[in-house]
Structure formats: structure tokens, C-alpha cells
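Render DUF2282 domain-containing protein in 3D.
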Amino acid sequence: MDQQRRVLAAVSAALALGLSVSPALAQDKAKEKCYGIAKAGQNDCANLSGTHSCAGQSTVDNAPDEWKYVPKGQCSAMKGLSADEAKAKIKKK
């Protein structure tokens, strides 16, 4: 009986993991990276300039090389930049 519970727990965990990955992938497709809108410490991942590689490491508000995920189509309404626009703005500095 104890072995049966362990097998059931393992199968349940595997199913839960598989089900949790699928919605996350679909959710990412409905979002886009928006540069220049992240507050200090609230960026989603590595920046364009390569000074860090993790989320939450931005040091200033609205740096053009820092980004956050936003709903697809909302970046410009938030006064954000595309990756190409952000790269161009960084080169001007």
C-alpha cells in the first residue's frame, strides 16, 4: 500500500508539472518585451547592455536597456520601446 501511494504521488506530480508548463508557454506568447519602462529592481531579465543577466537587477527607473513583459500591443501605449528602438537609444548616449 505504501508503494502504491508513492507511485500515485509521483504520477500526480508529473502530471501537475506537465499541466503547469503548457499554460505558461501560451501566456508568454501573449506578451512582449517592453524596454524603458521597468522601475529599479523590477526588470524581468538580462538587459541589452550586458551589465547583468538576472531579473530584479536594474538600478535606475526607466533605463532604455531594461525591459519587462507586457501584454502584446501595449508597449507603445506605456511609452515603452521595442528592442530596436532601445538599441538605437543606447547607441546615442
